[in-house]
Design goal:
By secondary structure, the chain is an alpha+beta fold. The chain contains three helices and seven strands; from the N terminus they run βααββββββα.
Length: 136
């Protein structure tokens, strides 16, 4: 098992940051590997990614400001995003992005794929921060 975690301070209130992050219609604007995502039903997204179409598990906790996801066809991958902030009126919040890879996937070994995951996470957090800042 290999876990990756990155965080980013964002110049936007936590409620705004979370609204942007949990909107499936905006995933393609901040997640580099997603070209399109649509809500299929509660708990499921239809995702068009770089590897083709997929069905994603999608659990949003408004109270905790936490999103958890996985790939229905791949139990060796999961992730979550947590938004933190002291209160909704503060102009600054934080996004914590966490990915878990199990099994013998390339992401579980040090090397080029590991660096690609880290770079993609940084890029995703940069994009999310920019969207939330513009929306806030």
């Amino acid at each position: 098992m290999t876990e990756y975690e990155r965080s980013r301070t964002v110049q936007a209130p936590a409620r705004v940051l979370f609204e942007v992050a949990q909107d499936p219609g905006k995933l393609d604007r901040w997640v580099p590997s997603i070209q399109r995502a649509t809500q299929r039903d509660e708990g499921t997204l239809e995702v068009q990614g770089r590897d083709g179409p997929a069905e994603a598990l999608w659990d949003v906790s408004l109270q905790q400001r936490r999103i958890e996801w996985g790939h229905r066809g791949d139990p060796d991958y999961a992730g979550w995003l947590q938004v933190t902030g002291w209160n909704d009126d503060e102009a600054q919040s934080e996004a914590i992005l966490h990915l878990t890879f199990l099994g013998d996937r390339p992401e579980t070994h040090q090397g080029p794929r590991s660096r690609e995951v880290e770079d993609a996470m940084e890029h995703a957090l940069d994009n999310l921060a920019a969207l939330a800042t513009a929306a806030g």
